[in-house]
Specification:
heterodimer, A: about 750 residues, alpha+beta, Beta-Lactamase, 5 domains, 5-stranded antiparallel sheet, 17 strands, rod-shaped, B: about 200 residues, 8-stranded antiparallel sheet, 4-stranded antiparallel sheet, 4 helices, about 45% strand, elongated
């Protein structure tokens, strides 16, 4: 049994015992009025117990009412309902109790007053007067007898003792006494049934007789019955004789005495009751009042108790509902009854239990979804494909890192912003991409796949993008998912592979016939030229064969270039003093440049240490760049070429930057993005593979190359080579090999 | 041989019998019996103890003045009770005093309407006297002469004894059916202070 149940049980037992005690006290008080012999002594105690009970009840009720008022003012849940119920219960209990009390008091007052009405009082007075009259006749008779005897005794004082006995017998007196007026007894005559000791003459009697007044009185006897006492003065027989008094005691007839006792007892009892009428009424009214107050207070206390019992489950329900609203689904209400309220509490507990289970399931599902989302986010983050999800209003919902890398903007940081606002430049890659996507969607095509070629300055990107609508409400899409990839490198690789295949075939299919062609042309000239007599014919033959030989050589060079481009040599990485290599290569072109009025400047970073590269490939790289610049300055007259090396940081990576600049015409603007493509050239001569080979070498070394025009005119090609190969030593493998192995 | 009083008034040995009743009465009848007037307290005077033929006797006089409501109650038929409570204790040094003797002399005064006489009845002896007025009856009650209280043989020479007397006034009804109501009407009952004396046999 839990603590609240024990408290409730103890409270119920206490209230029960207290109620029984008070009920017993009330019954005792009622018994006091009905059976006073047993309870009259206990009456004050019983009254005090009732008053104590009243005080206790008043205290309890006051505490309850104070609590109720505090709850009302504090807007405690259920306090208003409880107050209303207490008020209704209390009034319903009070009204009938007050009515009963009012009529009971009225009935009591009138009932008690009727006991002492005027007729009864008058009858008793009459009875008393009648009895008194009857006795007074006897009293007057005995007084007259006594007076007559006193006259005769006074006349014959000498024979007084004998006469006294005679008169006593004649008059039927119990005792006749002759005494002085001071009370000294002179002679006594008593009957045999009387005490031997003569009765004193009371001072009251002597006083009256001394004043010359006869005395007569009716004297009740302790053992019952009455005596009539008479006293008269005895006339003095001789002058100077002491004055004397004759006292006579006469019995009252037993029958008459009994009747007189009855009347006296009734009169006395009525007098007592009449005198106690007011306390009697007050006592009854007080008893009724105590019962009334006990009933009223008990009714109000019961009203509060009942209201509390009725409201408590509602309070529990409200508090439980609030707790549930605040997310506390562990709330369980105590089941205190098995009625409708108990059913409601049971339903509430069942509801919270189900809600908790549902919340746990939802939480598990949400957790699983979060896990999936996290996994998806990891996957998206690791994807090289850009993924952007959009709201219907073109706000970015999600984006992965690859999207930002492809578009050149931190798209992840722009979640919630409009997709049109991506990128920092109005005509940047990102804006172009957003515009292209929006153009497709505004055309009414919500699911498409398309390749965009985006060009912003020197940056050229080819992006393959697929758009898929997200499910939404009804037929309207809930958003869009853009999945795109930068296929620039892929296309380039494909193109390079294609060109490599072409070069390999050219080398195989074209280079082989070139030597017989050249030999044939030389043989023709060798055989026919001496035999020809016409100088003009000889000149034609010689020029034609020379042309064939030259063109064959040119074609051979071209085929060799193709072969060189298609070849994927194994890099022999070794530590190289880059500055020294740059000086060596540029020295080769100084003489050639000077002949063409081209000035060659070298600006080397003295802090540059050795780099780990394939020296042959790096030398080829420098040659191609210098040749490209020298050829760009052809026909221009004076010009200059500068080669610069320096250490630089690209993000967190340290690189060696090699920049070759010239002040030639520069790259055509529209061709800047394609200058590293094979056979993309604006020059009249050349294979168009020089810069393509340069980029290939850079990529083989894990570097980066950019081509752009200088602000003051001319071209600038910048190569970044990583410095991190030093630790691998001179015999390490090249990045291209590592990439190939990873692939 | 008469003994004079060694002390006139001493503190009552116990709580007054009706004190709590009066308190309850005041609380319970507040607003119902407002304006209650207490009767005058009876006063014992001229208390003296004498030794007469080996018996200690008591003489005293009681001043007893009834209020109008008390007179009305008695005239209406209620019986007036007057008790003289007499106690003799032996002094003990380290222990409470030991009671040697205790007696109560009880009287009743009632009005006999038929004879129009006031009856004074000694409940100890059954002796009864009647008087023509209430004052005469009360005067008779107030006179205590040669009331034997203790046999001198019961006292040990050399010890010190303390005697005390008081008068207790009460009211009762002839049949006891309404006795409990006196709780509400007993506004004139009272008791005198204890009057004490010393006995050194």
């Amino acid at each position: 049994m839990d603590a609240p149940t024990l408290r409730r049980a103890a409270s119920a037992v206490t209230v029960g015992i207290g109620g029984l005690l008070w009920l017993a006290a009330i019954l005792f008080m009622a018994q006091t009025a009905q059976n006073s012999d047993q309870f009259s002594r206990l009456h004050p105690w019983i009254l005090m117990v009732n008053i104590a009970g009243l005080a206790v009840l008043v205290g309890l009720l006051g505490a309850k009412l104070a609590q109720l008022i505090r709850d009302w003012r504090g807007h405690v849940i259920g306090s208003r309902l409880k107050a209303r119920m207490v008020w209704i219960f209390g009034v319903l209990a009070t009204l009938p109790i007050l009515l009963v009390y009012f009529f009971a008091v009225q009935f009591l007052n009138r009932g008690i007053d009727s006991w002492f009405n005027v007729e009864i009082r008058s009858s008793l007075d009459d009875a008393l007067v009648l009895s008194r009259s009857a006795l007074e006749v006897r009293m007057r008779e005995h007084l007259a007898d006594t007076a007559a005897a006193a006259d005769e005794l006074g006349a014959s004082a000498a024979t007084m003792p004998g006469l006294l006995e005679t008169y006593r017998r004649q008059l039927g007196a119990v005792e006749l006494t002759v005494a002085t007026d001071a009370g000294a007894i002179i002679a006594v005559s008593k009957g045999l049934s009387a005490d031997i000791v003569p009765e004193d003459v009371p001072g009251e009697v002597l006083l009256q007789v001394r004043q010359g007044q006869p005395f007569v009185s009716l004297e009740p006897q302790p053992e019952g019955g009455y005596l009539i006492r008479t006293a008269v003065p005895i006339a003095a027989g001789l002058p100077g004789q002491e004055r004397m008094v004759l006292q006579g005691l006469y019995p009252v007839a037993e029958r008459l005495g009994a009747l007189a006792d009855t009347v006296q007892a009734a009169y006395k009892q009525f007098g007592e009751k009449d005198y106690l009428r007011r306390p009697l009424k007050a006592s009854f009214i007080l008893t009724l009042t105590v019962v009334l107050l006990l009933s009223l207070l008990a009714a109000w206390y019961g009203a509060i108790f009942t209201a509390q019992r009725l409201v408590q489950p509602i309070q529990d329900l409200v508090q439980g509902t609030r707790a549930v609203a605040q997310g506390d689904l562990d709330t369980r209400l105590p089941l205190t009854s098995h009625d409708e309220m108990g059913f409601l509490v049971h339903s509430f507990n069942d509801m919270t239990r189900r809600l908790r289970r549902a919340r746990e399931e939802s939480r598990s599902a949400q957790q699983a979804a979060e896990t999936e989302r996290a996994n998806l986010a990891v996957i998206l983050a690791r994807l090289s494909t850009g993924v952007i999800s959009l709201e219907r209003d073109w706000r970015i919902r999600t984006a992965n890192r690859a999207a930002g890398m492809i578009l050149g903007d931190d798209v992840e940081a722009r979640v919630g912003a409009a997709f049109d606002s991506v990128g920092t430049e109005p005509q940047g890659i990102a804006r172009q991409f957003a515009g292209a996507c929006r153009q497709r969607l505004e055309a009414g095509v919500i699911e498409w796949r398309e390749q965009f070629t985006l060009q912003a300055g020197t940056v050229r990107r080819i992006v393959m993008c697929a758009c898929t609508p997200l499910p939404g409400e009804g037929e309207e899409p809930g958003g869009y998912v853009l999945v795109f990839d930068d296929i620039t490198a892929l296309l380039r690789t494909q193109r390079e592979a294609a060109w490599g295949e072409v070069a390999r075939r050219l080398a195989h299919e074209i280079k082989n016939p070139l030597t017989p062609i050249r030999l044939s042309a030389e043989r023709i000239r060798h055989r026919l030229l001496p035999a020809m007599h016409d100088p003009k014919d000889a000149q034609v033959l010689e020029r034609s064969t020379e042309t064939i030989v030259q063109q064959v050589e040119a074609m051979k060079e071209m085929v060799n270039a193709f072969s060189e481009y298609a070849r994927a040599p194994r890099l022999e990485m070794t530590a190289v003093d880059l500055n020294r290599m740059v000086v060596e290569v540029t020295d080769l072109y100084r003489a050639q440049g000077a002949a063409r009025n081209v000035r060659l400047k070298v600006d080397l970073d003295p802090a540059l240490d050795v780099v780990v590269v394939d020296p042959g490939r790096l030398r080829q790289l420098l040659n191609n760049l210098l040749i490209n610049s020298v050829e760009a300055l052809e026909g221009q007259g004076a010009g200059s070429i500068s080669v610069t090396t320096r250490r630089a940081l690209r993000g967190e990576a340290e690189v060696v930057e090699i920049a070759v600049e010239d002040d030639g015409p520069g790259f055509q603007r529209e061709m800047i993005g394609q200058v590293f493509e094979p056979y993309v050239t604006t020059k009249a001569k050349g294979t168009g593979l020089g810069l393509a080979i340069v980029r290939r070498i850079v990529e083989e070394h894990g570097g980066h190359i950019e081509a752009d025009n200088r602000p003051g005119g001319g071209a600038r090609v910048c190569v970044d080579l990583p410095l991190h190969h030093q630790a691998d030593g001179a015999h390490g493998r090249g990045p291209s090999e590592q990439r190939r192995e990873r692939a | 041989m008469r003994y004079s009083l060694s002390a006139t008034v001493s503190k009552p040995p116990c709580l007054a019998r009706r004190t709590w009743q009066a308190a309850v009465c005041v609380i319970a009848t507040f607003g119902v019996f407002g304006g209650v007037a207490r009767a005058e307290t009876p006063v014992l005077r001229e208390v003296a103890v004498g030794l007469d033929e080996g018996v200690y006797t008591l003489d005293a006089r009681l001043d007893l003045a009834l209020s109008d409501s008390a007179r009305k109650a008695v005239e209406s038929g209620l019986t007036l009770r007057l008790d003289y409570e007499i106690v003799v204790d032996r002094e003990r040094r380290y222990l409470p005093d030991a009671q040697v003797a205790a007696l109560a002399q009880r009287y009743e005064v009632s009005y006999h309407a038929l004879s129009q006489r006031w009856l004074v009845r000694n409940l100890n002896t059954g002796e009864q006297h009647d008087y023509g007025s209430l004052d005469m009856a009360l005067a008779r009650l107030g006179e205590i002469r040669d009331l034997p209280i203790l046999d001198a043989a019961l006292l040990s020479p050399g010890l010190v004894y303390f005697g005390r007397v008081r008068a207790v006034l009460d009211l009762s009804t002839a049949p006891d059916a309404f006795g409990w109501l006196l709780f509400w009407a007993d506004d004139w009952s009272g008791e005198s202070e204890w009057e004490s004396w010393t006995l050194r046999p």
